[in-house]
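Let's do one together. I've listed all components of the complex below, 1465 residues spread over two lines.
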Amino acid sequence: MMLHGGQFHVYYSRSKTTHIIATNLPNSKINELRGEKVVRPEWITDSIKAGRQLSYLQYQLYAKQKGLSFPSLCLRKLDQQDLAGANIHTFPHHSSSSSSKGGLPLPQKPSLSAPKPSHAGPGAGLPLLEPPAEQSQVSSRQVSSDAPHRDQEQGLKVNGSLRNPKGGGIKLNGLHGEGQWEEHSLTSGRAKDSTLTNGHVHRFNGALKLTDMGHHPGGLTQDVQPEPRASVGPEVDPYDGPRTPSPIPSHQPRTSPVTRHKRDSDSPSTQHQVPSLASPTNHDVSTFSDPTPARPHPSDPGSRVRLNGSHHSGDPTHNHTHQDLSDQSVKPVARGGAEGGIISEFYSYSRLHHISTWRSEFAEYVTSLQCRKRTAGGAVFSGKEKLKRLRAQRSSGVSSMPAPQVRQSCILHVDMDCFFVSVGIRHRPDLKGKPVAVTSNRGPGRVAQRPGTNPQLEFQYYQQKRNRHQTGEPRPDKTDGDLEMTPSPEDISEHCHGNGVAQDQASLSMAEIASCSYEARQAGVKNGMCFGQAKKLCPELKAVPYDFQAYKEVALAMFETLASYTHHIEALSCDEALVDATALLAEVGVTPDELASAIRADVMEKTGCSASVGMGSNILLARMATRRAKPNGQYLLRSEEVDDFIRDQSVTSLPGVGRSMGSKLASLGVSSCGDLQQVSMARLQREFGPRTGQTLFRFCRGLDDRPVRSEKERKSVSAEMNYNIRFTKVEEAESFLNNLSMEVQKRLQGAGLKGRRVTLKVMMRKPGAPVEPAKYGGHGICDNLARSVTLGQATDSGKLIAQEAIKLFHAMRLDVTDMRGVGLQVQLLDGGPQAPAQDAQRSIRDLLQAPRRPSSNTTTSCTAAPNSTSSSTLSTSTALSDADAIPSGSSSGASFNQATSSSLMEPPTSLSDPIPSTSKGEPPPRTPNHAHSRLNLSIEVPSPSQVDRSVLEALPPELREQVERTWSRREEEEEEQPGASCSVTPPPLRDLDFSSSPPPDAHPPPGTLLLQIPNQPGQTGSTGIILALPDFSQVDPDVFAALPKELQEELRSAYSRREGAQPQVEEKNPLLQLKQPAAGRTKRRYKRKNASPAKKGPSPLKRLHPGTSPAKSSPSKPPPPAFRLKDDPSGLKTENGPSSSSMKPDVPEVLSKFIPRPVPTLAGACELSDIRTLLREWVTTISEPMEEDILQVVKYCTELVEDKDLEKLDIIIKYMKRIMQQSVESVWSMAFDFIVDNVQVVVQQMYGSTLKIT
Amino acid sequence: MTTLTRQDLNFGQVVADILCEFLEVAIHLILYVREVYPSGIFQKKKKYNVPVQMSCHPELNQYIQDTLHCVKPLIEKNEAEKVVIVIMDKERHPVERFVFEISQPPLLSISSETLLSHVEQLLRAVILKISVCDAVLDNNPPGCTFTVLVHTREAATRNMEKIQVIKDFPWMVADEQEVHMQGSRLIPLKTMTSDLVKMQLYVEERAQKTS
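Okay, and this is what the predicted structure of the assembly comes out as:
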């Protein structure tokens, strides 16, 4: 490049640098470099090839490409005039070389760098002396003067750098690194380098240095660009630089190590090294240290590489072999998950992974568009301009008629036709019109059967499974989905089987077809079908390899095209998007059809691929219209046609209706949307749950109020691998989990998120299933298990996640050899940046949510789940341990829990300290582990019956002792004071307030008021109890006196502490309130679960409010009004306004009657019959109502009061009275009392009298 | 199909006309059902297609008419929140309060031809509820009287003083004891929601009526 007049800047200079070359930029960089020309490295290579400087436009790097794990290459060209013939000394560089952390000294280091002093000169040996971070820089910069040797040399260097973790994970800033490097060179005795000793100087006069360097033919540190690690096959190709040693001995002193390193360390691609560092069995170090780091895969001698279904053992000696496109299908076998890079390898080659990351990337791209628009203050919409021109022309041509009155909203669903195929053949006109399939297999479609497989059995299994799902039912219409986003093996096998050729299945290639052209589809080929099978159906089927780079380019071009019209885009996947064109159409004044054809023409022009556009007044209709538009067409579903249109649609074409729901619907006699329209909402909700039912109810009528969301929030971040998982030892599984956690960490950090819940999903070979599945490395027939744990604080630390995951893993006690898939998911995400501000608040939220049991979709019904058989002792103990689970430091109720859990806990360091809380009711082994992770601040100790003995034994002695001590103490307490826990079990005061006095206009969306009807009966057994601290005035003095002294004291101190904390709580409460409805999905346990102690005395509710409670006439009323009002400013208005005093005619009403309020709903239901259905189901299906549900009902009733619908309220209360008091469970009548008490308070305040309940 | 909104001049009048007509029927019926007056002064008539009892005592009728005449302007302007028929015992302590709570529906419009018949159905339901309300109410002590209260919104009372609809028939601020009932219980009778008006009727009943 230098030869051709390019210049390489070590440091970015706004004035001099013309282009920035990178393949991977962190967010901050993207922001920083906005407005600069950021291009991909291909631009250079292509320009050189072309012999002239190409327009950079096509090479622009737009969105973050973290999925591609390229280390960035920061190359600045001062002079791009003369590029021709330039040689770029790109150097393959292990992507993670600079981003490793942990500062582990690696024994391999010396051996790597030392043996080559001849080439590298002193530099090679130096890394030993230097801090590891510098080492990597140096070595990557080192270029021997001897060109022929350079490759080898560099290879070595890189190897060395690979293994060099950065000391302590410190991020080097450029200056620092530079300086270090100079020093290092100095020590190495390079006269020339010594001139550069001062990194600062160096930094500012690049030109000088250039000449300087020129004097030394020997010691050239030229532009060893950290070559993108070839994570994706096709992208590797342009970077073969290192393998073609540069004939130019000239030195480009401007190695960019510093910036580059900065980038690298910023870049999320820590995958390769980090896992290996973290893994205890680091035997693969040698892999990395052998001179093949430049290869797209660290060809581990132990790993087997699979190429198109056949095996290639990785060749560690070949550096330069893996260049062809088929690389992408090369998947190393994770035999022994200990191999460090295996996970990232997997993700590098998994097309699903790419596609799915693209989706989020494009979503981010759209988001960034939004940001850019905001910052730029208004974007240029070239497409829009074009439309305007078009419109102008048309109106000048004819008569200028007013803009069509399209006030209705208009959503466009843009979907590329056969995306993978059309991209694959866009430069191959010879394939147009022929049946083409995109697949990794290009052979005849046959492979030998491997031993240990039993495809027939698997097919039988899937067949049976399918039969259970009613074989004949129509599969979801896939015609418009060019790629199956999740072609599970089931699908694949089903396809194969469905085509009736099962007998010689085994010999056919199992490589599935990602996408096939319409011609192929006519022949019966389907997406997701196995290639061998397809080949039989359609012998002339042509296979086209994957070309991820091209997909990405085309997809990007498509999104850019769309973005040139409007920024109201939602990326659905890499090849489809939703466009909210309402505003655009109104502004420009064209018809939707015109817009659609303009977009399609544009996309065709820019990408060479055709797109179909469906238009409708909402997302649902637009998507359905696309179905009709395909292929290469457009269809506008007019609102007047909707009814007819949708009636004929199959239910399975509705989004969200898949196979299982489809078959369930079919069993109801519903196959088309028209049939579905006949089904009542109540029925649907009964069958599918309140939310899904409602969605179905709306969808089948063509109603859909989802907005087009340009900015999306992620709900979870996960990494999952179910390919080639074959562990032999537990350690392997553990280290695999470690690695997987690092992958998750990478993704979390990439997205800037932190999560609080970790879910471990494991696929286990189904007993009786063949050991080796038919698909090579596949998972075969599996049971899916999942476990989750909620952390006290949101984290993005892979280590923490790994810790938890391993604990979960051990808790599941699985046979590692049968593991076929492992996934880690992190949920309950919080945005990273605001974290500090939220911390305190979150700890309170934690408190509220603490006992909510993460609803683990465990299919093994809780091998370790606490088995609480409602014996009073046990429930008391759970109560206590629940108390323990609440953060000791969080301000309000927590202190109380401290009290109950006695002296096990250390006093909180400070009240404001957010000490992590953990949810209770988790598989036992967590506890000890938590004790670990929380540095003995742990306050959660489950009851002995819930703890896995073996885990306990594995604990350090001190910890074990502590745990045991707690138990014995607990037992004492229980014996002394059986009522102890009940006597201090008040209703959660704030909770009550949330529900009984909702802000009048902040009704949560209907879906969130889920009336939780737990279908998992196992869960009800292990309810937790939250113990909030009641108002001191509400504590029955008698009960208090009966408590043991110790407890009394602690209670007292808790109260005094709480007084201090009180104001804080009140401040935060409004926030909490708003949050509360949204948090409704998690389950909170109903307090009165503690039924056994309650029976002994008066109801806990009643006892709460003895006469001491001020300002309350009724003894059974919840919190004192003062507290309420403070707590709930918005509730104040509604509740206090029409209080009894305002009954006088001349007292002004506070309540404004003019604001139309939404009709109150309970779990989305507002019709009396629906509500009755819901309530009946609630009462009859579960034995113990959950607090949250009760609160929802109270809330609904309150809304009814506020909505002045007393009649309905009366009916509902009467109904509840009937069904609840009939119930055998006494808790139900208590629940009823509770509801009525609360409602009466509200009615009293609104109307000055209470309801007469007969 | 015309769509009238709240701004339209006659909208409030329409509502007020309908409501006042209804209230007249309702008051008569309440007086009958609650046996405030001997049943002899009532005559069976048909209103809203259901039988109702109307008093034929001229002075009583006049009083009711005049009262409603004064209520009408308030309803017209949406200033009346509640119209309360209070039944009082001999000591003029209320034993029952029939509360007609009137509010505007979320969507105010007169758009449909079927509106009026729909409203009529709803009103009929309320009337029927009243006629059977003695089932859920305790018997009143003998010698009861009644009065009509209006709860107004905001500062409507101020204007009321200025404009007397009927000469020498002014509104008075109610006694506290007429308004308040000790230990009352609330019995919702009916809620109706139409595009025109939203109204609910409930009864507040004193816990111990014979004291």
